[in-house]
Write a structure and sequence with these properties.
globular; Arc Repressor Mutant, subunit A; mainly alpha; 232 residues
Amino acid sequence: MQLAVGDVTLVDVARPVTCVSEDESVRRLSLDLPRRSLISHLGFEPQGGTCSRSGTPAGRLLYEVVLDALKGGGSPCPPVDSYMQLAVYDLLGSLFAPTDPPPSSRYANKVFTRIRGLIKDRFADPDFGPTEAAAEAGISLRYLQKLFTRCGSTCTEFIFSLRLNHAARLLERRKLLSIGEPISAIAYDCGFRDYTHFARKFRRRFGHSPGAHSGTLEKSSTPATLCSDLSA
């Protein structure tokens, strides 16, 4: 495909690709996106090889992000904080969301949208999981799992993604406002009962510990009342 200024394309790194440019002044910014994290956040899997043109509002916003990154000093692709990472995910979701679904799947899409909204309202409840989501939506657990599977994710992954995203925002707020709230309390507020489980998933998602994210050293002690959360 031929790209113009501001265009965005998704490339599957598992497949070969060659970039050719006749203009040596052309500059590109590549973002390596973790597949599972992106799918969990969006609720669907964007297809590699697709292209979005620059005329859309989301395309223009993402282009501004690219320009700011290229103007930054040091590395041409500086690391982004959790807020910017989620913003990029949302912009990509807007650019590459499935459009005009087949008539036979419209009901399923409507149900899936309702379930995602329900989960977003309840994810902080530590007792809330796929079984409870299916019951509140009035569908079977098997059908719930099928809806998420067709998008390349699971209900459990989606719940944990929301919990971790919320935790990252609270940790950023803790850092900016110099709040002394224990990190374990933030973990519990986001739906985790087991701090060790939370810390392990947070590090896997963001590449560093919750303590490092909030600019403090992590405490080794955790409340004695903690028990296991949803299994990964």
